[in-house]
Fold this protein.
Amino acid sequence: MPAELAERYRREGWWDDRTLGQLLHDALEADPGRRMRIWSPTHPYLGTVGDVYEGALRVAGGLRAHGIGPGDVVAFQLPNWVEAAITFYACTVVGVTIVPIVHFYGPKEVGFILRQSGARALVIVSAYGKRDFLAELASVRDGLNELEMVFVVGDTGGAPDLLPFDDLRQAEPMGGPVAVDPDSPAVIGYTSGTTADPKGVVHTHRTLGCEVRQLSGHQANRDRPSLVGAPVGHAIGMLGGLLCPLVGGKPIYMIDGWDPPTVLDAMVEEDISAGSGSTYFFTSLLDCPGFGPEHVERMHYTGLGGSPIPNAVAERADKLGISLVRSYGSTEHPSITGSEHEAPREKRIHTDGKPLDGVEIRTVDEDGNDVGVGKPGEILSRGPDRFAGYTDPTLTAEAIEEGGWFHTGDVGIIDEDGYLTITDRVKDIIIRGGENVSAAEVEQLLAHMKGVAEVAVVAAPDERLGEHGCAFFRMQPGSEGDVPDLEAVRARLEAAGLARQKWPEELRIVDELPRTPSGKIQKFVLRERLRAGE
């Protein structure tokens, strides 16, 4: 971050000197009686945030007794269980750098993350679902020279090199968070969704603290707390499940596996909202057979982000009477733009909002020249919640240019009122016979077809043209009679006036689409399937 920007962020109050541990301590102590509930078929929890923080102070004491403190890196790989919350809060108290690992990740990703981050300790679940996490960890343990301690939630199997997490919970509690440099790394979040190894995104206490306060304020007008299904090992789940509710003065509600019928029942039982975050969480509730007016009432204020939001989904919400706002960000820069519920309808449902307070954006062409209003270009952003850099300095140098501008890799258009609309990704363009085809443009049109829940258009190999478009459709339940074929797809695009060169030349109907932990469609997986002839 350029020195002049850092000084401005301090002067204008975006950055303060509190550590993440102090920020959460202040919020937790303000109202420790707030409800905390986690839905799980095997590991449910009901208590208060004060109960959880008391447990965190004990676990922090246990970590300190093992010699862990400021300057150390502690990773955890846990489902959305209360132990995940206790571990996260405990790490903020003891002053370490936290590395949350999505519980979906397999041994390849976990081994890479532990090696690159230099984690000294790991908190891991012994088993979850059909997976044996300890066996997977054992398969990559060789070479993890800096990993000294592994604490296990569940059965250690008597292994001498594995320590029971419950032992930490019996330790003498710490009195509060230790003091650390607010410019030091607080969290390293590893991104997913590309074929390369995950990228370690470093947030300091200042950048993450700013993000939490900023996002909590932006969501303040939502009338009900929300049930979070995104894993806390991912930025969306971490912010929405563990951080923003606390700072925003709300209770915490999470679920360890997104199950729409269970979520719908929970909404009515607790009088809470759900469906915010990635589009998938929202549409899965709308498509569930049990969805009704009682759920619409509780979803009146809903925010979507983390993945592209088709206009068809926004319009569907609008017809139901749901005030839907769209936002845009990434692990590197979590809150770039967003709309307010009071914004004009067209801006609210058809754009991704304006830059949040303190944030600036530009759109540039391939040569780095600003393209101005109304023209597509790569989005560059900067702001007080922008990450400090990657764990790999080479990636940092490639992504951040002079002046602190971050190359998002996304393409968008800024209108005359300052609202941003995401149109594509720089690497998500199909090059058909030398002509660029915007996948997002085609997807927006196909998403309106009857019975379609989601559609993803990706590049398929073509011996003649290099690439052509392939559309993957996930249909709404009960829409068997509406399943499209190529003829119907072409008729739809022809009626919309889309150039013939942009039409998909093959399609697939799938029950599910591959996703990142935050719900974003993993297009690289679809492209790999096509290259493999699947």
About this structure: Residues 432-531 form a domain with the GMP Synthetase; Chain A, domain 3 fold (CATH 3.30.300.30).
